[in-house]
Amino acid sequence: xxxxxxxxxxxxxxxxxxxxxxxxxxxxxxxxxxxxxxxxxxxxxxxxxxxxxxxxxxxxxxxxxxxxxxxxxxxxxxxxxxxxxxxxxxxxxxxxxxxxxxxxxxxxxxxxxxxxxxxxxxxxxxxxxxxxxxxxxxxxxxxxxxxxxxxxxxxxxxxxxxxxxxxxxxxxxxxxxxxxxxxxxxxxxxxxxxxxxxxxxxxxxxxxxxxxxxxxxxxxxxxxxxxxxxxxxxxxxxxxxxxxxxxxxxxxxxxxxxxxxxxxxxxxxxxxxxxxxxxxxxxxxxxxxxxxxxxxxxxxxxxxxxxxxxxxxxxxxxxxxxxxxxxxxxxxxxxxxxxxxxxxxxxxxxxxxxxxxxxxxxxxxxxxxxxxxxxxxxxxxxxxxxxxxxxxxxxxxxxxxxxxxxxxxxxxxxxxxxxx
Length: 420
Description:
With about 425 residues, this protein is mostly helical.
Protein backbone atom coordinates (compact mmCIF):
# COMPACT_ATOMS: atom_id res chain seq x y z
CA UNK A 1 0.00 0.00 0.00
CA UNK A 2 1.61 3.25 -1.10
CA UNK A 3 1.23 6.20 1.20
CA UNK A 4 1.03 8.71 -1.61
CA UNK A 5 -2.14 7.16 -3.03
CA UNK A 6 -4.18 6.98 0.14
CA UNK A 7 -6.19 10.17 -0.15
CA UNK A 8 -7.75 12.77 -2.45
CA UNK A 9 -6.32 16.23 -3.02
CA UNK A 10 -9.48 17.84 -4.45
CA UNK A 11 -12.22 19.47 -2.36
CA UNK A 12 -14.69 16.82 -3.52
CA UNK A 13 -12.17 14.14 -2.62
CA UNK A 14 -11.78 15.49 0.95
CA UNK A 15 -15.55 15.32 1.46
CA UNK A 16 -15.65 11.78 0.14
CA UNK A 17 -12.63 10.92 2.31
CA UNK A 18 -14.42 11.87 5.56
CA UNK A 19 -17.72 10.27 4.56
CA UNK A 20 -16.06 7.00 3.56
CA UNK A 21 -14.29 6.69 6.92
CA UNK A 22 -17.64 6.33 8.69
CA UNK A 23 -19.01 3.85 6.14
CA UNK A 24 -16.03 1.50 6.36
CA UNK A 25 -15.95 1.13 10.14
CA UNK A 26 -18.09 -2.01 10.24
CA UNK A 27 -16.04 -3.63 7.47
CA UNK A 28 -12.79 -3.09 9.33
CA UNK A 29 -14.16 -4.54 12.56
CA UNK A 30 -14.65 -7.80 10.74
CA UNK A 31 -11.31 -7.51 8.96
CA UNK A 32 -9.39 -6.96 12.18
CA UNK A 33 -10.95 -9.94 13.92
CA UNK A 34 -10.25 -12.22 10.98
CA UNK A 35 -6.74 -10.87 10.45
CA UNK A 36 -5.68 -11.19 14.07
CA UNK A 37 -6.98 -14.75 14.31
CA UNK A 38 -5.45 -15.96 11.06
CA UNK A 39 -2.17 -14.04 11.12
CA UNK A 40 -1.05 -13.43 14.72
CA UNK A 41 0.98 -16.65 14.78
CA UNK A 42 2.64 -15.98 11.43
CA UNK A 43 6.14 -14.56 11.58
CA UNK A 44 6.45 -11.55 9.29
CA UNK A 45 9.80 -12.67 7.98
CA UNK A 46 7.63 -14.99 5.91
CA UNK A 47 4.88 -12.41 5.52
CA UNK A 48 4.57 -12.48 1.72
CA UNK A 49 4.42 -16.26 1.46
CA UNK A 50 1.92 -16.36 4.31
CA UNK A 51 -0.44 -14.00 2.49
CA UNK A 52 -0.32 -16.15 -0.67
CA UNK A 53 -0.96 -19.26 1.37
CA UNK A 54 -4.00 -17.72 3.08
CA UNK A 55 -5.35 -16.52 -0.24
CA UNK A 56 -5.22 -19.96 -1.75
CA UNK A 57 -6.51 -21.75 1.30
CA UNK A 58 -10.20 -22.55 0.72
CA UNK A 59 -10.60 -23.58 4.33
CA UNK A 60 -9.03 -20.46 5.90
CA UNK A 61 -11.89 -20.31 8.40
CA UNK A 62 -10.56 -23.53 9.90
CA UNK A 63 -7.57 -21.51 11.20
CA UNK A 64 -9.87 -20.19 13.91
CA UNK A 65 -10.07 -23.63 15.48
CA UNK A 66 -6.28 -23.96 15.62
CA UNK A 67 -5.79 -20.70 17.54
CA UNK A 68 -5.41 -20.69 21.35
CA UNK A 69 -8.77 -20.17 23.02
CA UNK A 70 -7.51 -17.28 25.11
CA UNK A 71 -6.42 -15.40 21.98
CA UNK A 72 -9.78 -15.94 20.28
CA UNK A 73 -11.51 -14.62 23.40
CA UNK A 74 -9.47 -11.43 23.14
CA UNK A 75 -10.46 -10.72 19.53
CA UNK A 76 -11.84 -7.18 19.73
CA UNK A 77 -15.02 -5.67 18.56
CA UNK A 78 -12.92 -2.65 17.74
CA UNK A 79 -13.73 0.37 15.62
CA UNK A 80 -11.19 1.00 12.89
CA UNK A 81 -11.55 3.52 10.12
CA UNK A 82 -9.75 3.55 6.79
CA UNK A 83 -8.62 6.03 4.16
CA UNK A 84 -10.08 5.17 0.73
CA UNK A 85 -7.56 5.22 -2.10
CA UNK A 86 -8.33 6.48 -5.59
CA UNK A 87 -8.14 2.89 -6.83
CA UNK A 88 -10.92 1.78 -4.48
CA UNK A 89 -14.23 2.33 -6.23
CA UNK A 90 -17.61 1.39 -4.80
CA UNK A 91 -17.82 -1.66 -7.05
CA UNK A 92 -14.36 -2.79 -6.01
CA UNK A 93 -15.32 -2.64 -2.34
CA UNK A 94 -18.42 -4.74 -3.00
CA UNK A 95 -16.31 -7.23 -4.89
CA UNK A 96 -13.79 -7.43 -2.04
CA UNK A 97 -16.57 -8.06 0.47
CA UNK A 98 -18.07 -10.81 -1.63
CA UNK A 99 -14.70 -12.48 -2.07
CA UNK A 100 -14.10 -12.27 1.69
CA UNK A 101 -10.71 -10.69 1.12
CA UNK A 102 -8.80 -10.57 4.40
CA UNK A 103 -6.61 -7.72 5.62
CA UNK A 104 -3.54 -8.74 7.60
CA UNK A 105 -2.66 -7.21 10.99
CA UNK A 106 0.37 -5.53 9.38
CA UNK A 107 -1.86 -3.84 6.80
CA UNK A 108 -4.27 -2.71 9.50
CA UNK A 109 -1.43 -1.22 11.54
CA UNK A 110 -0.27 0.70 8.48
CA UNK A 111 -3.80 2.01 7.92
CA UNK A 112 -4.03 3.07 11.54
CA UNK A 113 -0.72 4.88 11.25
CA UNK A 114 -2.00 6.75 8.20
CA UNK A 115 -5.21 7.76 9.96
CA UNK A 116 -3.38 9.05 13.02
CA UNK A 117 -0.47 10.76 11.26
CA UNK A 118 -1.73 11.46 7.74
CA UNK A 119 0.23 10.93 4.53
CA UNK A 120 1.89 12.96 1.79
CA UNK A 121 -1.48 14.30 0.61
CA UNK A 122 -3.63 14.41 3.75
CA UNK A 123 -3.28 15.77 7.24
CA UNK A 124 -4.79 13.59 9.97
CA UNK A 125 -8.48 14.25 10.58
CA UNK A 126 -9.05 14.97 14.31
CA UNK A 127 -12.50 13.35 14.26
CA UNK A 128 -11.12 10.17 12.74
CA UNK A 129 -8.29 10.08 15.30
CA UNK A 130 -10.82 10.36 18.11
CA UNK A 131 -12.96 7.61 16.62
CA UNK A 132 -9.96 5.30 16.35
CA UNK A 133 -9.07 5.92 20.00
CA UNK A 134 -12.66 5.38 21.13
CA UNK A 135 -12.84 2.21 19.09
CA UNK A 136 -9.69 0.77 20.63
CA UNK A 137 -11.08 1.20 24.13
CA UNK A 138 -14.75 0.47 23.50
CA UNK A 139 -14.44 -2.65 25.62
CA UNK A 140 -11.42 -2.81 27.93
CA UNK A 141 -12.10 -6.46 28.66
CA UNK A 142 -11.80 -7.37 25.00
CA UNK A 143 -9.22 -4.99 23.62
CA UNK A 144 -7.10 -5.12 20.43
CA UNK A 145 -4.20 -3.17 21.94
CA UNK A 146 -3.18 -6.04 24.21
CA UNK A 147 -3.15 -8.49 21.31
CA UNK A 148 -1.06 -6.18 19.15
CA UNK A 149 1.44 -5.56 21.97
CA UNK A 150 1.90 -9.24 22.74
CA UNK A 151 2.14 -10.03 19.00
CA UNK A 152 4.55 -7.15 18.36
CA UNK A 153 7.57 -9.33 17.59
CA UNK A 154 5.67 -11.15 14.85
CA UNK A 155 5.65 -7.97 12.75
CA UNK A 156 8.45 -6.91 10.43
CA UNK A 157 10.58 -3.87 11.32
CA UNK A 158 8.53 -1.40 9.28
CA UNK A 159 5.25 -2.52 10.88
CA UNK A 160 6.87 -2.37 14.32
CA UNK A 161 7.85 1.22 13.56
CA UNK A 162 4.28 2.06 12.51
CA UNK A 163 2.78 0.45 15.60
CA UNK A 164 5.23 2.21 17.93
CA UNK A 165 3.96 5.53 16.56
CA UNK A 166 0.33 4.37 16.70
CA UNK A 167 0.86 3.46 20.35
CA UNK A 168 2.37 6.87 21.10
CA UNK A 169 -0.61 8.60 19.51
CA UNK A 170 -3.13 6.49 21.43
CA UNK A 171 -1.58 7.12 24.85
CA UNK A 172 -1.35 10.89 24.26
CA UNK A 173 -4.89 11.35 23.00
CA UNK A 174 -7.75 12.16 25.33
CA UNK A 175 -11.42 11.61 24.60
CA UNK A 176 -13.67 14.01 26.49
CA UNK A 177 -10.75 14.75 28.78
CA UNK A 178 -10.04 11.10 29.59
CA UNK A 179 -6.77 9.35 28.70
CA UNK A 180 -8.40 6.11 27.55
CA UNK A 181 -5.15 4.33 26.71
CA UNK A 182 -3.58 5.12 30.09
CA UNK A 183 -6.73 3.97 31.88
CA UNK A 184 -6.59 0.66 30.02
CA UNK A 185 -2.86 0.13 30.52
CA UNK A 186 -3.08 0.96 34.23
CA UNK A 187 -5.64 -1.84 34.54
CA UNK A 188 -3.41 -4.19 32.54
CA UNK A 189 0.07 -3.49 33.86
CA UNK A 190 1.26 -6.88 32.65
CA UNK A 191 1.38 -5.36 29.14
CA UNK A 192 3.81 -2.64 30.26
CA UNK A 193 5.89 -5.21 32.12
CA UNK A 194 5.90 -7.30 28.96
CA UNK A 195 7.28 -4.36 26.96
CA UNK A 196 10.19 -3.56 29.23
CA UNK A 197 11.01 -7.18 30.07
CA UNK A 198 11.11 -8.12 26.39
CA UNK A 199 13.22 -5.04 25.65
CA UNK A 200 15.79 -6.18 28.19
CA UNK A 201 15.69 -9.79 26.95
CA UNK A 202 16.14 -8.77 23.32
CA UNK A 203 19.08 -6.50 24.12
CA UNK A 204 20.72 -9.43 25.87
CA UNK A 205 20.09 -11.51 22.74
CA UNK A 206 21.52 -8.82 20.48
CA UNK A 207 18.19 -7.92 18.83
CA UNK A 208 18.51 -4.22 19.42
CA UNK A 209 15.99 -2.71 16.98
CA UNK A 210 12.85 -4.41 18.32
CA UNK A 211 14.09 -3.85 21.87
CA UNK A 212 14.29 -0.10 21.29
CA UNK A 213 10.78 0.01 19.82
CA UNK A 214 9.55 -1.62 23.03
CA UNK A 215 11.53 0.91 25.00
CA UNK A 216 9.97 3.83 23.11
CA UNK A 217 6.48 2.57 23.98
CA UNK A 218 7.48 2.09 27.60
CA UNK A 219 8.77 5.67 27.80
CA UNK A 220 5.50 6.99 26.34
CA UNK A 221 3.58 5.01 28.96
CA UNK A 222 5.62 6.58 31.76
CA UNK A 223 5.20 10.06 30.29
CA UNK A 224 1.42 9.90 30.31
CA UNK A 225 0.64 7.86 33.42
CA UNK A 226 1.33 8.59 37.06
CA UNK A 227 0.11 5.13 38.08
CA UNK A 228 2.41 3.30 35.66
CA UNK A 229 5.36 5.33 36.97
CA UNK A 230 4.33 4.49 40.53
CA UNK A 231 4.15 0.79 39.67
CA UNK A 232 7.74 0.72 38.42
CA UNK A 233 9.02 2.68 41.43
CA UNK A 234 7.48 0.31 43.96
CA UNK A 235 10.69 -1.65 44.25
CA UNK A 236 14.37 -1.02 43.65
CA UNK A 237 14.58 -3.75 41.02
CA UNK A 238 13.58 -1.88 37.89
CA UNK A 239 15.42 1.30 38.84
CA UNK A 240 18.64 -0.68 39.36
CA UNK A 241 18.14 -2.50 36.05
CA UNK A 242 17.61 0.80 34.22
CA UNK A 243 20.77 2.23 35.80
CA UNK A 244 22.72 -0.84 34.68
CA UNK A 245 21.52 -0.50 31.10
CA UNK A 246 22.02 3.27 31.02
CA UNK A 247 25.70 2.53 31.71
CA UNK A 248 26.05 0.02 28.87
CA UNK A 249 28.97 0.57 26.50
CA UNK A 250 26.53 0.43 23.58
CA UNK A 251 25.80 4.13 23.02
CA UNK A 252 22.31 3.65 21.55
CA UNK A 253 21.14 1.28 24.29
CA UNK A 254 22.65 3.50 26.98
CA UNK A 255 20.94 6.59 25.57
CA UNK A 256 17.52 4.93 25.48
CA UNK A 257 17.77 3.79 29.08
CA UNK A 258 18.97 7.23 30.12
CA UNK A 259 15.73 8.54 28.63
CA UNK A 260 13.86 5.84 30.54
CA UNK A 261 15.44 6.87 33.83
CA UNK A 262 14.80 10.53 33.17
CA UNK A 263 11.14 9.90 32.35
CA UNK A 264 10.71 7.66 35.39
CA UNK A 265 12.35 10.07 37.84
CA UNK A 266 11.46 13.59 36.71
CA UNK A 267 7.93 13.77 35.25
CA UNK A 268 5.55 12.69 38.01
CA UNK A 269 7.21 14.51 40.89
CA UNK A 270 4.89 13.48 43.73
CA UNK A 271 5.43 9.80 42.87
CA UNK A 272 9.21 10.30 42.78
CA UNK A 273 9.15 12.09 46.14
CA UNK A 274 7.22 9.18 47.61
CA UNK A 275 9.75 6.72 46.18
CA UNK A 276 12.67 8.66 47.65
CA UNK A 277 11.19 8.68 51.16
CA UNK A 278 12.29 5.06 51.52
CA UNK A 279 15.02 4.91 48.89
CA UNK A 280 16.90 8.21 49.16
CA UNK A 281 20.17 6.87 50.57
CA UNK A 282 20.88 4.01 48.19
CA UNK A 283 19.54 5.85 45.15
CA UNK A 284 21.78 8.90 45.49
CA UNK A 285 24.70 6.67 46.39
CA UNK A 286 24.13 4.99 43.03
CA UNK A 287 23.90 8.33 41.22
CA UNK A 288 27.07 9.61 42.94
CA UNK A 289 29.16 6.48 42.51
CA UNK A 290 28.07 5.26 39.09
CA UNK A 291 27.41 8.54 37.32
CA UNK A 292 28.89 11.62 38.98
CA UNK A 293 32.14 9.88 39.94
CA UNK A 294 32.36 7.92 36.69
CA UNK A 295 35.50 8.13 34.55
CA UNK A 296 33.20 8.23 31.50
CA UNK A 297 32.31 11.85 30.77
CA UNK A 298 28.97 11.02 29.09
CA UNK A 299 27.83 9.05 32.13
CA UNK A 300 28.91 11.92 34.34
CA UNK A 301 27.07 14.44 32.15
CA UNK A 302 23.84 12.43 32.24
CA UNK A 303 24.07 12.02 36.02
CA UNK A 304 24.40 15.79 36.41
CA UNK A 305 21.47 16.46 34.06
CA UNK A 306 19.29 13.97 35.93
CA UNK A 307 20.27 15.42 39.29
CA UNK A 308 19.58 18.98 38.18
CA UNK A 309 16.06 18.07 37.04
CA UNK A 310 15.26 16.02 40.12
CA UNK A 311 16.31 18.85 42.44
CA UNK A 312 13.74 21.16 40.87
CA UNK A 313 11.25 19.46 43.19
CA UNK A 314 11.26 20.99 46.68
CA UNK A 315 10.24 17.64 48.15
CA UNK A 316 13.47 16.08 46.86
CA UNK A 317 16.02 18.85 47.29
CA UNK A 318 15.82 19.23 51.09
CA UNK A 319 17.50 15.98 52.13
CA UNK A 320 20.01 16.06 49.28
CA UNK A 321 21.49 19.49 50.12
CA UNK A 322 21.99 18.54 53.77
CA UNK A 323 24.68 16.04 52.78
CA UNK A 324 28.32 17.12 52.98
CA UNK A 325 29.34 14.25 50.70
CA UNK A 326 26.95 15.49 48.02
CA UNK A 327 28.38 19.01 48.31
CA UNK A 328 31.95 17.78 47.84
CA UNK A 329 31.00 15.84 44.72
CA UNK A 330 29.26 18.85 43.18
CA UNK A 331 32.19 21.15 44.00
CA UNK A 332 34.56 18.72 42.28
CA UNK A 333 32.29 18.71 39.22
CA UNK A 334 32.51 22.51 39.12
CA UNK A 335 36.30 22.28 39.00
CA UNK A 336 36.38 19.70 36.23
CA UNK A 337 37.82 20.75 32.86
CA UNK A 338 35.42 20.06 30.02
CA UNK A 339 34.90 21.15 26.42
CA UNK A 340 31.19 20.96 27.13
CA UNK A 341 30.60 24.50 28.35
CA UNK A 342 27.17 23.73 29.75
CA UNK A 343 28.66 21.11 32.12
CA UNK A 344 29.98 23.65 34.61
CA UNK A 345 26.82 25.72 34.30
CA UNK A 346 24.76 22.69 35.33
CA UNK A 347 27.13 21.99 38.22
CA UNK A 348 26.71 25.61 39.36
CA UNK A 349 22.96 25.18 39.14
CA UNK A 350 23.12 22.21 41.50
CA UNK A 351 25.59 24.02 43.79
CA UNK A 352 23.17 26.91 44.12
CA UNK A 353 20.70 24.54 45.77
CA UNK A 354 23.12 24.21 48.68
CA UNK A 355 23.54 27.97 48.98
CA UNK A 356 19.85 28.79 49.21
CA UNK A 357 19.20 26.07 51.78
CA UNK A 358 17.53 27.89 54.69
CA UNK A 359 18.60 25.13 57.07
CA UNK A 360 22.21 24.83 55.95
CA UNK A 361 24.16 22.47 58.25
CA UNK A 362 27.24 23.90 60.00
CA UNK A 363 29.68 21.57 58.27
CA UNK A 364 28.42 22.60 54.81
CA UNK A 365 28.64 26.30 55.66
CA UNK A 366 32.18 25.79 56.93
CA UNK A 367 33.31 24.08 53.71
CA UNK A 368 31.81 26.83 51.54
CA UNK A 369 33.52 29.56 53.60
CA UNK A 370 36.83 27.69 53.57
CA UNK A 371 36.73 27.47 49.74
CA UNK A 372 35.17 30.88 49.20
CA UNK A 373 37.92 32.34 46.97
CA UNK A 374 38.22 29.23 44.78
CA UNK A 375 34.46 29.06 44.36
CA UNK A 376 34.27 32.72 43.33
CA UNK A 377 36.98 32.22 40.68
CA UNK A 378 35.12 29.21 39.28
CA UNK A 379 31.85 31.11 39.20
CA UNK A 380 33.43 34.03 37.34
CA UNK A 381 34.86 31.58 34.78
CA UNK A 382 31.44 30.08 34.23
CA UNK A 383 29.93 33.54 33.90
CA UNK A 384 32.54 34.54 31.30
CA UNK A 385 31.81 31.43 29.25
CA UNK A 386 28.07 32.00 29.46
CA UNK A 387 28.44 35.57 28.23
CA UNK A 388 29.82 34.23 24.95
CA UNK A 389 26.44 32.67 24.26
CA UNK A 390 23.69 35.14 23.59
CA UNK A 391 21.04 32.50 24.02
CA UNK A 392 22.25 31.92 27.61
CA UNK A 393 22.07 35.58 28.64
CA UNK A 394 19.49 34.80 31.30
CA UNK A 395 21.98 32.54 33.05
CA UNK A 396 24.20 35.52 33.85
CA UNK A 397 21.70 36.95 36.33
CA UNK A 398 21.59 33.60 38.09
CA UNK A 399 25.36 33.48 38.41
CA UNK A 400 25.42 37.05 39.80
CA UNK A 401 23.04 35.91 42.51
CA UNK A 402 25.28 32.98 43.39
CA UNK A 403 28.43 35.10 43.58
CA UNK A 404 26.66 37.67 45.76
CA UNK A 405 25.59 34.97 48.20
CA UNK A 406 29.10 33.54 48.47
CA UNK A 407 30.77 36.94 48.67
CA UNK A 408 28.54 37.92 51.59
CA UNK A 409 29.26 34.75 53.48
CA UNK A 410 31.59 34.87 56.44
CA UNK A 411 31.88 33.05 59.74
CA UNK A 412 29.80 35.61 61.69
CA UNK A 413 26.88 35.68 59.23
CA UNK A 414 26.79 31.90 59.03
CA UNK A 415 26.94 31.58 62.79
CA UNK A 416 24.11 34.12 63.16
CA UNK A 417 21.92 32.36 60.63
CA UNK A 418 22.47 29.02 62.33
CA UNK A 419 21.61 30.44 65.75
CA UNK A 420 18.46 32.06 64.30
